[in-house]
Amino acid sequence: MDEEATIGDLELAALISSRICHDVISPVGAIANGLEMLDEEQDESMREQTMDLIRKSARQASAKLQFARLAFGAAGSAGAEIDLRDAERVARDFVQGGKHTLSWQGPPVTLPKNKVKLLLNLLALGVVALPRGGTVNVEINGEGPEVAFRVLAQGEPARLSEQVTGLLAGANGMVLDAHSIQPYYAGRVAAAAGMTVTVEARDKEVELKAA
Question: Which residues make Cβ contacts (< 8 Å) with residue 78, sequence separation at least 6?
Fold first, then answer.
């Protein structure tokens, strides 16, 4: 499905659902394949290796779903705020265990939902900016609802496409799909939170700020 920004709520929901499915289909598929292998494999060492693959894939699927629950969903819908300690926990599970590492600095406070959603989406874009891996540094400055975010992605190469930066800035006329929906959604969430996102690319790093 390709749509041009701006899109309606139904199209937005469909594309976000596609994005989440795209993120979790790989580890879920690995779990299914591993279970099939267990049915056929008799060698104990191979069965243990297969179980390791299943465990790793299950952790990845869980981490991606928990992250999506906060970044896209209505997690904690009974209240208007989300605890940053919960956000940090799901962020660490989402980022670590692969090619990326996470540094998180910020107060253990609760913030309005849309601000936390924006922070997590900027973090995810920091991961996207590092296709070969690297470090994603998250900083939350200030206390209470009036905070500013800084996500610094460091690695080689470090880059975000013009499409991503344009969608973050609220540009229209760009084609949206399951891959590009995240920066568009982040831009929408930033507007709802009363924040402005800026992106700056330098040698071996990409900096995303929201204030």
Answer: none
